[in-house]
Design goal:
The protein has about 280 residues and is mainly alpha-helical. The chain is built from 16 helices and no strands.
């Protein structure tokens, strides 16, 4: 068996691939930049999206879905912005753009990556609800954290030098995903995701949130909300009956956000409703 590549080798390989691969559409970066600006207006956001006809078509298709029940058909990005607002259209753009990261070349790859995509989207919804309830982090920023927090998995799968299936085999033997990834690749999806966000020059709050597996030095509320959102999404995926004692809940995140472990069942119900509503809107 060949020697396991060191973490820097794997990260360097992945980041080099990112230089030549259309990972996140340029329009998504521009949408993020505009929506994070206090001076942003409808015109700037319209220009950011309208430069990509295909992307525009996808946004309009989602806006015109039955879930939004708008009073008339929306035919332009400007109308979409008028009806839904900059923040909502930003979230639509992020959802559309990030989805492309999770498409595989084979049915098996696509099935695996779309599972991560669904988990990311559910985490984003849960984390946004938590941010709204606590008022400690900006809901839209936390939504983005949740949406991006598993991108390291698909990067490892695509560019890490080994098929991610090897990680799943170790997980079936009782190893955590983090430990299994380190065994197979020499690094884990959190390290890769944070490195990618740093390379993309994402806002610091996003980079902080993507390090969701452990507390930060300054107890970042965005990181805590992402960690708890990830946990709640996993609980709902596995079923309530398997998480009655919430032994796996990130205690540091609960403390940072002011939640008690006894309140997690009720929070789970609220998260379940939010996820169901979000799926209707897709």
């Amino acid at each position: 068996m060949s020697a396991m590549p060191t973490t820097p080798d794997v990260l360097t390989r992945i980041l080099n691939h990112m230089d030549s691969t259309p990972v996140l559409p340029h329009v998504v970066f521009r949408v993020l930049e505009v929506s994070n600006s206090s001076d942003a207006g409808l015109h700037e956001m319209e220009r950011a999206i309208a430069i990509d006809p295909g992307f525009t078509a996808k946004v309009l298709s989602m806006v015109n879905s039955a879930a939004y029940a708008l009073p008339k058909k929306v035919a332009s990005i400007r109308d979409a912005l008028m009806f839904l607002g900059i923040k909502q259209v930003r979230n639509l753009a992020m959802t559309i753009g990030v989805f492309d990261l999770f498409v595989g070349k084979s049915d098996q790859e696509s099935l695996r990556r779309r599972g991560w995509w669904r988990q990311s989207l559910d985490t984003a919804v849960c984390a946004r609800l938590i941010a709204r309830e606590t008022g400690l982090a900006t809901p839209d920023d936390v939504y983005t954290c949740g949406l991006l927090h598993l991108i390291g998995k698909t990067f490892l799968d695509r560019f890490g030098g080994s098929v991610y299936e090897a990680v799943l085999i170790l997980q079936k033997q009782g190893m955590s995903d983090i430990s299994a990834e380190r065994r197979v690749y020499g690094c884990d999806h959190v390290e890769v995701g944070v490195a990618a966000a740093t390379k993309w020059a994402m806002p610091l709050v996003i980079t902080e949130g993507m390090g969701y597996c452990q507390p930060s030095m300054d107890s970042s509320p965005a990181r805590a909300a992402t960690a708890l959102g990830h946990y709640m999404a996993n609980c709902l995926q596995e079923g309530h009956e398997r998480n009655t004692d919430h032994a796996g809940a990130p205690r540091w995140a609960l403390e940072a956000l002011g939640y008690d472990v006894l309140a997690l069942d009720e929070l789970s119900d609220r998260c379940s409703s939010a996820i169901a509503q979000a799926r209707l809107e897709m």
